[in-house]
Design a protein that fits this description.
disordered C terminus; 30% helix; alpha/beta; 15 strands; 180 residues
Length: 180
Amino acid sequence: MFSGFKAIMKDIKVTMRKDPAARSAIEVYFLYPHIKALKSYRKSHRLYEKGHFFAARWVSQRARRKTGIEIHPGAQIGENLFIDHGMGVVIGETTIIGDNVTLYQGVTLGGTGKDKGKRHPTLGNCVVVGSGAKILGNIYIAPGTKVGANAVVLKDTTHESTAVGIPARVIDKGIWYFNL
């Protein structure tokens, strides 16, 4: 994981590449809530890794109030995460997110109850999760998967598949391309 200035610059570059509405790096830095949420996540994650759990949650909850994006400090996030219109995004404690993942508003990466241990999803690289989708439990979303808006995913997906519906089902399994 990058730290400080390099990480922020990388976040800004990803946003400029993925969001056609982004007009300037200054605009992205000061006005895009996911930039603030990722900055706070990095601080809280460092505290969490050092065993300062209360302080870590304090930082993450302040960010949640300011941005509407809740990222638990225990989550593990790869490079180039892009959260577009992030209001209502929830990322649980044992979630693992790969590189080049895109989440839209209202996405939940959550648990299914009071399980112990790994209880949140793992997202592979290059996953796109549509608005309002819920990915629940200790499941694996394979690299290149697209999850449709409002889908409720309760089972693993296959490489480069598309999952839609409640509960989600795979409707397309094949190669697709997108801008990273």
